[in-house]
Amino acid sequence: MGLWIKICGITRPEDAIAVERSGADALGLIFSSRSSRTVSPERAALIVAPLSEHLEKVAVFTEPDWDRIEEVVERLGIDLIQWHGGPLSRDEDAKLGSFGVPWMHAIRWDGRSPLETPHTALRLLVEGRSAKGWGGTGEGWSYGALREVEWPLPVVLSGGLSPEGVAIALNSICSPGNPDGRRLFGVDVSSGVESRPGVKDEIRMNTFVKNVREWEALL
């Protein structure tokens, strides 16, 4: 199985169609007032309407508004929940696992501490900490530090990825000369494939996917 590629922060139907054309595996829809790329459930319904069932739909949340999460999952046919709201209590962890779809826990990692292990999560998304806040900052980090810690769950690499730099980031974890190194589950990109916040650039999306697939072919 190849690396799972998610393009996040989709705000327009035409960008969603371009994501599917690019060959990416998933798109992300953000339901959070913290983000400039947030969408309403009504807007999200228009965005996903033209998509096939083959493209995974990921809903990103930062607040434990369980009724809203349930509404979005049911209304939009969400395939995966992404929790981007920080540490969870055991009860909150269990609640996220109760919506009938798997969920992924996003971590703003300091590059040293053990990775958190949610009890019911399917995988971890790991990005670096940024003074700009969470998600879509465009800031890279020391990706290679992931080689120094245990991975309690499959890992999705995020934070500052771009068409120009994704192969370098991947090489820092598992290079073609070291095919037995850590194998990521996937990669997540947002601002690195945009022309401006919330507006995706189809050429950059296509190039990002192509560069990831070409990197994989070298392993």
Automatic annotation (TrEMBL):
Please tell me which top-level EC class this enzyme sits in: isomerase
Q: Which residue ranges does the record assign to the N-(5'phosphoribosyl) anthranilate isomerase (PRAI) domain?
A: 5-211
Instruction: Report which residue ranges the record marks as coiled coil.
Output: none
User: Under the GO molecular function aspect, what terms does this record hold?
Assistant: phosphoribosylanthranilate isomerase activity
Q: What are the transmembrane regions?
A: none
Which organism does this sequence originate in?
Answer: Leptospirillum ferrodiazotrophum
**What superkingdom does the record give?**
Bacteria
Q: Tell me which Gene Ontology terms the entry assigns under biological process.
A: L-tryptophan biosynthetic process
The gene name reads trpF
**What reactions does this protein catalyze?**
N-(5-phospho-beta-D-ribosyl)anthranilate = 1-(2-carboxyphenylamino)-1-deoxy-D-ribulose 5-phosphate
This entry's Enzyme Commission designation comes to 5.3.1.24
User: What pathway, per the record?
Assistant: Amino-acid biosynthesis; L-tryptophan biosynthesis; L-tryptophan from chorismate: step 3/5
Which family does the UniProt entry place this protein in? Belongs to the TrpF family.
Keywords for this protein: Amino-acid biosynthesis, Aromatic amino acid biosynthesis, Isomerase, Tryptophan biosynthesis
Pfam families to which the protein is assigned, alphabetical: PRAI (PF00697)
Report the protein name in the record.
Answer: N-(5'-phosphoribosyl)anthranilate isomerase
